[in-house]
Amino acid sequence: MYKKFVRTFVLGISSVLLLSLLPGSFIESNTANAQQAEKKKKTRRVPAISEQVFKKLGQGQELINLEQEKPEGQRNYTEVKKVITDALGRTRRYNENELANLRNMLGYLYYLEEDYAGAIEQYKIVVAQGEKIPEGLEVTTLYTVSQLSYVQENYEDALYYMEIWITKAANPTAQPRFFMAMVYYQMKDYDKAIEQMELGIKIAEETNGRITEQNWGLLAFLYFEKEDWTNVLRVMEILVDQFPKREHWIRLAGVYGQEGFEKKQLYALEAAYTSELSRGEDDDVVMFSKRTDYTNLAGLLMQEEVPYRAAKVLVEGFKREALERDEQDLNALGQAWQLAQEVDEAIPVFEEAAKLAEDGKIFERLSYLYLEDDQYEKCVRTATNALDKGGLRKPQSVHVVKGMCQFNQNKLRGARTSFVSCRNIARREDDKANQRTCGQWISYIDRESKRQEQLAAADSASGR
Fold first, then answer.
1. For a pLDDT cut of 70, what percent of the chain falls above it?
2. Could you tell me which of 187, 232, 184, 235 has the C-alpha nearest to residue 211?
3. 414-429 average pLDDT score
4. Cβ atoms < 10 Å from Cβ of 352
5. Could you tell me the pLDDT band of residue 18, with boundaries at 50, 70 and 90?
6. 218 vs 23: which has the higher pLDDT
7. Which residues lie closer than 8 Å to 438 by C-beta, 6 or more apart?
8. What is the dihedral of CA 455, 456, 461, 464, to 10 degrees?
9. Exposed (0-12), middle (13-18) or buried (19+): which is 369, by Cβ within 10 Å?
């Protein structure tokens, strides 16, 4: 359940990280560099960039801007790359800062072409210049190399460059920790992934940062893989509180049930169900949508001896077409109504279910209900149907019900036949209790038949 569940979170958090942290353009990258450097309030002495290199960088940026004005499928960065590679190929020796800026633009061009390996190669040359480049450029590029290494599934490099970035960044947010947790997750090192996730959450809480649904979802999955059910429940409770969606409620209820917290499982499902009922029909958010949603809640309510409530839940499930009018679901509804002592509600449901059943068990249940409701003719009919369909655990017991209903109709001969059948089956199965019961009924019917014959004879003799 959770392995399927986490895929959505993993894909979601990966795309969010990459979209938010990869470079947008050369100019934007340098703007971010300046801002980062200002935050650090630390000035590096870096070599100056010559006018000639500035011109090449400006020319390159203008060409990039022109290409990005075109439709995506028509962009071609060959000319821009030629400008930068020609500059790099000149015999003139560039200082570290000039070299880093040229390589940075070339790396960006490779990135735009989705040649991530080429981009990484260029960006690594940038950061290799160390203290000789603006701090903002170094910090931004470290982050970019880490991200692109993740895309290339080079997880060791992704972690290595992110760890360096954290030591250099000013007041890093929780996002890098969440990113590192993702990397450790991909490496299946769940202990370190949990460590990074918890650290990221702590940072976010201390700085009023944002913790996304994907963050909590990944943490829940990691604890699930560790079978740390206490923490799974802790995180899932946060999820349903902050992101009250169907899947969170259902999974929280499932873990409660797994861990033996049946009442909490019931409360979780009830909360989701009540929320569903309170929403308008036009509301796009659906809490209960599957058959198991309704049957699980109804089953827990039956277990807690609240059958009437269980029946109402199942009725709602039929109304919303989550349940099908098949033998299984109809039988469940019939049982709920029966246990709630709503016989008039239970009987038509069982009648519908019995017609769909392959065996006679539901007809057997109906025969008991009709006997209790003094509907003897229907009792005989359903008992006969039960015996004809077969598949009964104790057919002798159905013969007893049929015989009792026949007796109450004063059909003594038919009743005696039913009880004889009961006794014969009971003898074969060594069922002494039913042997005795049916034997007593046969004796009683014989006496009653004789009594009625004597009364009839006396009435005849007196001229009545």
1. 88
2. 235
3. 94
4. 17
5. very low
6. 218
7. 396, 399, 400, 403, 419, 420, 422, 423, 426
8. 100
9. buried
Q: In whole angstroms, what is the distance from residue 302 CA to residue 269 CA?
A: 14
pTM value is 0.69
Lowest-pLDDT range, 117-121, 168-172, 364-368? 168-172
Residue 283: both structure tokens together: 């509301």
Q: Residue 43 corresponds to which amino acid?
A: T
pLDDT digits (tens, 9 = 90+) for 303-355: 999 999 999 999 999 998 999 999 999 999 999 999 999 999 999 999 999 99
C-alpha–C-alpha distance, residues 248 and 243, integer Å: 8
Q: What is the mean pLDDT of residues 76-91?
A: 89
Tell me the C-alpha distance between 314 and 352, whole Å: 15
Query: What's the confidence (pLDDT) of residue 458?
Result: 78
Three-state SS across the chain? CHHHHHHHHHHHHHHHHHHHHCCCCHHHHHHHHHHHHHHHCCCCCCCCCCHHHHHHHHHHHHHHHHHHCCCHHHCCCHHHHHHHHHHHHCCCCCCHHHHHHHHHHHHHHHHHCCCHHHHHHHHHHHHCCHHHCCHHHHHHHHHHHHHHHHHCCCHHHHHHHHHHHHHHCCCCCCHHHHHHHHHHHHCCCHHHHHHHHHHHHHHHHHCCCCCCHHHHHHHHHHHHHCCCHHHHHHHHHHHHHHCCCHHHHHHHHHHHHHCCCHHHHHHHHHHHHHHHHHCCCCCCCCCCCCHHHHHHHHHHHHHCCCHHHHHHHHHHHHHCCCCCCCHHHHHHHHHHHHHCCCHHHHHHHHHHHHHHCCCCHHHHHHHHHHHHCCCHHHHHHHHHHHHHHCCCCCHHHHHHHHHHHHHHCCCHHHHHHHHHHHHHHHHHCCCHHHHHHHHHHHHHHHHHHHHHHHHHHHHHHCCC
pLDDT confidence of 284, banded at 50, 70, 90? low
**Could you give all domains of the chain from N- to C-terminal order, each with its CATH number?**
1-172 (1.25.40), 184-243 (1.25.40), 247-356 (1.25.40.10), 359-464 (1.25.40.10)
